[in-house]
Structure formats: C-alpha cells, structure tokens
C-alpha cells in the first residue's frame, strides 16, 4: 500500500538552492564541512557513473554565499527500457543528504521534486535517511553495518568474534597473504573473481569498464584500494574499499569457491581494517545487506560492527506519493544466470547495467 507523506518541517531562513555540475566545479570542496560525506557523495563517483553509464548529474546544494549548507547529489538515469528517473545516487549502498537543518533538507527535496517534474522523471529515489520523512513509505528490508575505526587496533581486534579471530589465524597459518594494491592489473585479477562470485549468486556482473573507472576516478585520486589474498601465486579472494573524508566503504568482495576453507575473506577484511585505521577514516561502512541474508550479516557482525536499518525513499512523481521500492527477491532469472556460460554472463552484465541503478 502506498502512503502519502510530506516533510513536516519549518523553513527558518531563506536559502539559495543551486543545481551544480560536479564534473565542472570543485564539488568535493563544497563537501569538506560535512563530516558525514562518503565516496558516494563525491566527484569521483559522479565521474564514474557519467563516463561508464552516461548518467547525468543534477547535484543540488543549499548555498549560503559560497558555502554549501546542505547537499543532495542526484543522477538522472534515462533508459528506453526502464524509464527516466532521479536517483540519489545509483549503485550506492547509502547516500543520504548532507545537512544539519531539517528546513534545508525539505527545501532540497522540494527542489528535487520540481526538477523531476520538469525532467519528466518517473520517480525520485533517495537512499538513506531523509529528515522529516519518518512516516513516509520506504523500502525497509535492508540493514547497514558500521565499525568505529577510531577505537585503536588493539580494541578493534579484541572486538572481533572468536570465530573471526580463529579464521584470521587459520588463513595466516595456511600461508595466505593479504596485501593492498591499486593498479589496473590488480583490478583485472579482482574482476575474474567478481564474475565467478556474481554468477554463484545469480546476479549479473558490472562491466569491466566500471571497475576500470574505479581505478581511474577513485584509486588514482587516493580514494580507495583493493585488498587481495593469495595462496602461493594464486589469487583466492579480494575486496574493493573506497574512502572519502572520515568514512570508508567496503563496496565489493569476491573469492574463489575452491579455497573458501582457507578463510581468506576474513583476513582480507582485517587487513583493510588495519590499513584504514592508519589512513585517517574513523568509520568503516560495510555496505547494505538484506535482512534475510543471515550468513552475510553474521560475517559483518563478527567484526564488531553495529547493525542499523537503511531506508530507501521513493517518491512516485506521476502518482504524487511515496511508494515502497520493491525488495530484491530470488526468481527464475537468478537461477538461469547461475548456469550461464561465463562469456554470455559478462555480455549480459555489459548490456543490462546502463539501464539499472
């Protein structure tokens, strides 16, 4: 059932809402005063989505002179198959507006709705908490896991679950070695594992151009790295970590199913925690997880994380009401993808992703 809701906040002052092109101005400079910023708010992610999929940025800023009091990054996804819509932002786990004043949040959202009507969007989706929308219909089947990196390595290790500590020791005793890399060669190795893992889960893989863009627009600007685990010379697990400001994000992980018994995934995560704790981020977000995925939730909770709900708000501009975005459920297409030949599976990913978000 759809539920109508509107931001119930007062506007305490006049603000200047501007539509900013993050590809042409110093967008990241506008974000510096917002400690809650993540890589998904930043210029690098905008460049990645624009160059790889052709999505158009409509980034909104509530300006006080040249100072951004609040921001809401939106990308327009325009597809002949899935329609035109605004998303804040595509392929992010969470990208809530950055603001301290509920009035600013309401003004940004109202401006975004006017923009959406002018651009003929089907809907506007915001991924993360929106001040003033506590009663709006939303997708609510997702949780996030965060880890306070400022506690210090000793406290972080002590907070690990006993099974995680055993797994790290087992990987180490088995000769697994985990190292940080940021090269295109390293990403190519990761991508081979990524395709295997995505096929196992019955989900299409992003095209390699997307991961090439991560290296070009994020790794090379100091906003991320890979942690890869090798047994001898063989790559058996790897994960992609991105960071911006105080927050790091575990974005992708993949592994060779033939070597899962060596527990390399646990070692990869711990190496990332060790590295990030010295690089400057004070918070690690482990991305979104479906509440029904008990195995992945246990893995993330084993690192001493705090679990919290993540809400996605979707406003249907044609019906003029909030609607709950559909949950992701297993169906026949997932089962079909698990048995696809790998070359066909990769073509499917290249074909599908420009139409997805």
Give an account of the 3D structure.
The chain has 357 residues and is α+β, with helices and mostly antiparallel strands. It has two domains: 16-139 and 311-328, Gcn5-related N-acetyltransferase (GNAT) (Aminopeptidase, 3-Layer(aba) Sandwich), CATH 3.40.630.30; 143-308, Aminopeptidase. Helices cover 34% and strands 29% of the residues. It contains eleven helices and 16 strands. It has helices at residues 27-31, 43-53, 102-119, 153-158, 162-173, 184-201, 208-217, 264-279, 294-301, 332-337, 342-352, and strands at 16-20, 56-57, 59-64, 67-72, 75-79, 83-88, 98-99, 123-127, 139-148, 176-181, 224-231, 234-244, 247-255, 283-290, 306-316, 321-323. A hairpin with a 4-residue loop joins β15 and β16. The model is unreliable at 1-12 (pLDDT under 50).
**Shape descriptor:** globular
Q: Which whole number gives the mean pLDDT?
A: 92
Helix/strand class: alpha+beta
Q: Tell me about the biggest sheet?
A: 12 strands, mixed
Compact overview of the structure:
This protein is of the alpha+beta class. It has 11 helices and 16 strands.
List keywords for this structure.
Aminopeptidase, 4-stranded antiparallel sheet, 29% strand, 2 domains, 12-stranded mixed sheet, globular, alpha+beta, 357 residues, disordered N terminus
């Amino acid at each position: 059932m759809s539920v109508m809701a509107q931001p119930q906040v007062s506007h305490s002052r006049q603000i200047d809402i501007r539509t900013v092109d993050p590809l042409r101005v110093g967008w990241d400079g506008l974000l510096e005063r917002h400690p809650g910023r993540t890589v998904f708010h930043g210029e690098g992610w905008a460049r990645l989505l624009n160059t790889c999929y052709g999505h158009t940025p409509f980034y909104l800023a509530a300006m006080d002179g040249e100072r951004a009091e609040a921001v809401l990054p939106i990308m327009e996804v325009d597809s002949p198959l899935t329609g035109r819509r605004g998303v804040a932002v595509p392929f992010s786990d969470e990208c809530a507006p950055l603001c301290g004043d509920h009035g600013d949040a309401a003004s940004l959202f109202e401006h975004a709705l006017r923009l959406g009507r002018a651009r003929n969007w089907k809907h506007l989706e915001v991924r993360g908490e929106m001040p003033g929308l506590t009663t709006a219909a939303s997708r609510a089947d997702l949780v996030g896991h965060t880890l306070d990196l400022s506690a210090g390595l000793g406290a972080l290790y002590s907070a690990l679950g006993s099974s995680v500590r055993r797994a790290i020791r087992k990987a180490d005793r088995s000769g697994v070695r985990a190292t940080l890399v940021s090269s295109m060669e390293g990403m190519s190795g990761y991508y081979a594992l990524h395709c295997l893992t995505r096929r196992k889960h019955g989900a299409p893989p992003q095209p390699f151009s997307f991961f090439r863009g991560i290296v070009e627009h994020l790794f090379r600007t100091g906003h991320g790295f890979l942690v890869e685990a090798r047994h001898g010379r063989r790559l058996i697990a790897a994960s992609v970590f991105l960071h911006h400001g105080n927050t790091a994000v575990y974005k992708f992980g993949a592994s060779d199913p033939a070597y899962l018994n060596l527990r390399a995934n646990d070692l990869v995560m711990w190496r990332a925690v060790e590295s990030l704790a010295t690089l400057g981020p004070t918070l690690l977000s482990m991305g979104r997880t479906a509440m029904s995925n008990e195995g992945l939730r246990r893995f993330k909770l084993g690192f001493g994380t705090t679990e919290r709900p993540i809400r996605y708000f979707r406003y249907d501009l044609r019906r003029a009401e909030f609607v709950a975005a559909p949950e992701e459920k297993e169906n026949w297409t997932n089962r079909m993808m698990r048995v696809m030949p790998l070359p066909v599976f990769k073509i499917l990913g290249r074909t599908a992703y420009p139409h997805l978000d």
